[in-house]
Amino acid sequence: MGVLDAFDKEQKEAALNATLVVFMADEAGRQQVIQALRQLNISDAYVAVGTINDLIDHLGKMERSPERLIVDISGLDKPLDALDQLADACDPSVTVYTVGEKNDVTLYRLLLQAGITDYRYKPLTVDALRLWLDDRDGYSVRQARSGKIIAVAGARGGVGATSVAGQLARELSAGGALRKVVFIDMDVFGGAGTTLMGMQSNHAMPEVLDSVANLDAQFLARVLTTTDDRMYTLGFNNAFDQPFQPEPGAVAAMLTALSQQFHYLVVDLPHAGGMVANEVYSRANFACLVSDTSVHAGRVLASLIGHVRGYGHDTVVHVVLNAVRPPVKAQVDPREFTKAVGHPVTVAIPYDGKFPALAEDLGEGMAKESQMAKAVARLARTLTGEVVDDDAGKGWIRRLFKRAA
Q1: Contact between 121 and 102 (Cβ < 8 Å)
Q2: Which one GO biological process term can you cite for this protein (predicted)?
Q3: Which residues constitute the domain of residue 103?
Q4: Are residues 80 and 158 in the same domain?
Q5: pTM exceeding 0.90
Q6: Widest CA span of the chain, in angstroms?
Q7: DSSP, res 316
Q8: Distances (CA, A) of 85 to 56, 118, 200
Q9: Least confident of 175-179, 196-200, 283-287
Q10: Are residues 226 and 209 part of one domain?
């Protein structure tokens, strides 16, 4: 290998391991940043000219996400949409700064609400860079970027909550090329979740709950189970004579820590109530409550909706109706059920007697023609904001319960 080849290799390795990555819209902006970084004596940086899509491509080649990103949003018609795509490409723990041409207070506020740490209009000065790179804690009052926590609970046993949770995790993972999703099974005695995800049950949960302060990427790589570095599982596998009760606050702290490492956390709750469930609700961005249309489930669901709202003041509740039995003439009218519950239905899953059970036995995702797969795909797009919730869309009752013979 020649001297120039060795130099090129060294430059490429540095670009793929930089802790600071900067993408500017033009060469003039790039040169300004390079000069400023030299004045600040910062060498562990990669500065390039390109779009957000170019930045996403570069992040896909890196061995690990950088600590900080600076991205130029000049000229973008929909910067928030572009930044949403960027959010899927890097770990939630990455601090993201933006620069642009507009001195716009409204844009500034929208960017902060979206989780961007700060916005400056060009030119980007040495003092601005020094502030960004010297003191990350200075922005603690602003909304931090973190992954979304999704609680999934059944109004009663046997309504398919775990099947919905598992398929939801798969859909979220498949929805973004660089998304990292963790499926968390809170069944102390080892639920069906890890089998459903095609992985072996692990017993990492007790260690994780005891080590919340140390949940960095290296620790999680050791204790979590994955087959593709995108979908992970975490759970218990206690013997039936080994009950486990976490310390108060441990579950909530664990979820907060994991949300800095994953884009989505899907938490499968074996019980809709109790200390563990309540701590999950207190941190959840979304609660997906799965129910059939039985009288008992309706009563429990109505109470559960109020309970979840009491613990998670900002938690968005989504009701998922799952027809776990073939339609019959004497069943409860879905319209009356919805009226009694007092909450709209986000998605309704028609009876699917084949694919959920087959997927669990095989440890694979459900076939595309599966009624549950189609409904959960819509739920996933609703949670990510790709489609607007319209109370499950027109005709959901007809789709849920076809006329009984």
Answers
A1: yes
A2: negative regulation of cell division
A3: 14-139
A4: no
A5: no
A6: 82
A7: E
A8: 8, 18, 32
A9: 175-179
A10: yes
φ and ψ at 69, to 5 degrees?
Answer: -125, 140
Q: Which amino acid is at 153?
A: A
Phi, psi torsion values for 97, nearest 5 degrees: -115, 150
- Integer Cα distance of 395 and 398 in angstroms: 5
What is the tally of structural domains in the chain?
2
φ, ψ (nearest 5 deg) of residue 42: -110, 120
SS3 (DSSP) at 239: coil
* Number of residues written out for the chain: 405
Asked if 169 contacts 264 with a C-beta cutoff of 8 angstroms, the reply is: yes
What type of residue sits at position 319? V
How many other C-beta atoms can be found within 10 angstroms of the C-beta atom of residue 277? 24
CB 281 within 8 A of CB 151: yes
Cβ(241)–Cβ(235) under 8 Å? no
Do 62 and 205 sit in the same domain of this protein?
Answer: no
Q: DSSP characters for 147-207?
A: PEEEEEEESSTTS-HHHHHHHHHHHHHHTSTT--EEEEE--TT--SHHHHTTS-----HHH
Work out the pLDDT band at 401, boundaries 50, 70, 90.
very low
Spatial distance between the Cα atoms of 255 and 43, rounded to a whole number of angstroms? 35
In the block, which residue shows the tokens 């080649």? 61
Q: Give the residue from 285, 379, 316 showing the smallest Cα distance to 92.
A: 285
Residue 1 lies in a domain: no
pLDDT digits (tens, 9 = 90+) for 316-347: 999 999 998 887 666 677 677 788 888 989 99
**pLDDT tens-digit map of 42-82:** 988 999 999 999 999 999 888 778 999 999 999 998 999 89
CB 153 within 8 Å of CB 277:
yes
360 neighbors 195 (Cβ within 8 angstroms): yes
Q: What is the DSSP string of 287-302?
A: EEEEE-S-HHHHHHHH
Q: What is the mean pLDDT of the chain?
A: 85
Name the 3-class secondary structure at 245: coil
Q: 229 versus 300: which is more confidently predicted? A: 300
Residue 313 gets which letter from DSSP?
T
Can you tell me the mean pLDDT for 376-402? 64
Residue pair 316/150 in contact by the 8 Å Cβ criterion: no
